[in-house]
């Protein structure tokens, strides 16, 4: 007798909640036995974006953490949604990645349908409607930035579906560190090099002051002419190189005499201690 | 403002006619459905379970009522008639159907969501038992006749046209 479905529980696709009560029972049994259940890998991120004179600059760090261990030292957090619209994701890494992929596919289908380049507002609306539908269970916060026919726009979207349209935004665990740099030095209509330096400094503040962010700074500059993704724009955490050598030259001190005395050792007592490897 | 009362938070708030997990006489069918527990059947095990189950139904209700308010009663009536016709162009219940007309009418051929990526029914590892699935479908269609007995396949094979005609006239 092969396994088969009941007519009453034919699945239609999408999320399946069959294992939820089992998972809840497993989690409660974990908490009783004082061992922790496995946690989802988060990106523990600093992501930031500003609107400058010609467009938008997005920045992100490159560390992915697995609870207290660095899972990926050089991951990519900025992804392309449309040729001139890019998106940075924070939160649970899998949720952020799949959300961006679904978003990119939907925006491409919409572009083919309308025959026009997409608006950043359309991208944000699709995203927030999807996140609201899942009530924040899709645990990813995203920054959407790009240039369209109406100009340059920058939105930040939170896991429950709320969004803000601002000239500068930061998200992730290092958001407070990065936003302090922006609050101090941001001016409207900055030049390109000044803007890049500002975003780089904000991400570096997140890298140094937040444990969940680290490694390199990635930047993405989007203007009316197009987008350029500067991977590894700055590496503030590389180790320094030693300038000099601390080895003494041979012949620095002269050897006057040498005597060799052999030791004779006998084994008197032996005892074995077991190591506590639990 | 929360207008949901306690009963709509239960799993059977959107009732499906015909067989449930209980057998044909309202009794527990342990052979086919295994051990049941009232708590598992009534109380949702995840906060999203009910809202996802009812999502398409609620979207349709909202869209139909908006259409009715803007364009008058004819718009949802015509759409519902076309949707009903499109749901009938499907293969036998245990075989995968492409739902092409249904997707085009609903507009879901231009969007990708989690229902297209996760748990694709075309790539399911188990299939429904053919006799039971067809029986379920037939009893659903003929429920006005109130027959709990299984209907043999011979009736279906010999006069399939009769069954389809019944549906279009009746509903």
From TrEMBL, chain A:
- Which coarse location class applies to the principal site listed for this UniProt protein? cytoplasm
The compartments listed are: Cytoplasm; Nucleus
Q: Got a GO cellular component term for this one?
A: cytoplasm
Q: Which residues form the active site?
A: 45 (nucleophile)
Question: Which controlled-vocabulary keywords does the entry list?
Answer: Cytoplasm, Hydrolase, Nucleus, Protease, Proteasome, Threonine protease
- Report which reactions are catalysed by this protein: Cleavage of peptide bonds with very broad specificity
Tell me the Gene3D superfamilies matching this sequence. Answer: Glutamine Phosphoribosylpyrophosphate, subunit 1, domain 1
Tell me the ranges covered by the Proteasome beta subunit C-terminal domain, including all copies.
236-272
User: What's a Pfam family this protein contains?
Assistant: Pr_beta_C
- Family assignment from sequence similarity: Belongs to the peptidase T1B family.
Oligomeric state and partners?
Component of the proteasome complex.
Q: Which PANTHER family match?
A: METALLOPROTEASE TLDD, PROTEASOME SUBUNIT BETA
Q: Can you name this protein?
A: Proteasome subunit beta
Q: Could you tell me which species this protein originates from?
A: Gouania willdenowi (Blunt-snouted clingfish)
Automatic annotation (TrEMBL), chain B:
Q: GO CC annotations?
A: cytoplasm; nucleus
Q: Which InterPro entries does its entry note?
A: Ump1
- Keywords associated with the record: Chaperone
Q: Name one GO biological process term.
A: proteasome assembly
Determine if ATP-binding is one of this entry's keywords.
no
Per the record, the similarity remark reads: Belongs to the POMP/UMP1 family.
Q: What is this protein called?
A: Proteasome maturation protein
> Native species of this protein?
Gouania willdenowi (Blunt-snouted clingfish)
The taxonomy runs: Eukaryota, Metazoa, Chordata, Craniata, Vertebrata
